Amino acid sequence: MILRSIAGLLSPAGPRARLSILTFHRVLGQPDPLLPDEPDIHRFDEELRWLGRWFQVLPLDEAANRLQAGTLPARAAAITFDDGYANNALHALPVLQRHGMSATFFIATSFLDGGRMWNDEIIETVRTCRYELLDLGDMGLGQHALATVADRRVAINALIGKIKYLEPVTRAKTVETVRERASVQLPTDLMMRSEQVVQLHQAGMQIGAHTCTHPILSNIPDIEADQEIVRSRQQLEGLIDAPVTLFAYPNGRPGRDYHAKHVAMLRHAGFKVAVSTAVGAATQACDLLQLPRFKPWDRTALRYGVRMLNNLRAPVAQLA
Fold it and tell me: What's this model's pTM, rounded to 2 decimal places?
């Protein structure tokens, strides 16, 4: 009750309200030692219990509209998922329904129906590689021990860090070469099928766009960025037969991963609400096309709650 009371003081109802938007990606069937920060079903259920105890969870579009109108309730929060992993439909949806909560699922459309995101190709390559040393020195990517789970986690983080900001075509070729060097076959069921997106929509969840191929918008030409934004919306609207007005910036750091011109592209394309990965809680002064998001990583209720409270006090970074 103390955490709930403090949250109410930091985020009162009305014009002084603050909106906490949480970011998730996966909900795993069981803990994965290579993805220790991703919740499994049990942990996700626990997090939703905490959120339900301390906050009022609203659909993102309703929360954003009420934030702007100055009618947001005290302790308001919204839940979002990025990318479009199949486990969102398999594992996250039933838990959300059990708690009577809504979430927004931002889908990178090009990976539906058997595709893979580049970072998952790296994760699954390292996971399934049978070598104890993956030598990529001639590619400028170093040598990576793979003898233990801890070694593999280090290798994954190092490779993703070195590859992330490569130009998209170069990045794709690099990832494919890494896979070939590791001599592995990769899964084709990581991302949602089209019918699972429809399932989420029919279950009352919100569907948002996350581009087609998940490029960092600041790394590609403007015409390509605009096409990624517009086409992803068109593809999702065709899939669910409903307007798609919510968007999440890939990677999402203001001034690094997207710029003011990309915000203008969203506005011109007809999006009403967009989320970044800047920390903090949104206020009435925030641009609805640059709402901040946050995700506590703590495993105990007290630490999780305190981090949520600290986020309510954090300054919000966004582009003018």
Answer: 0.96
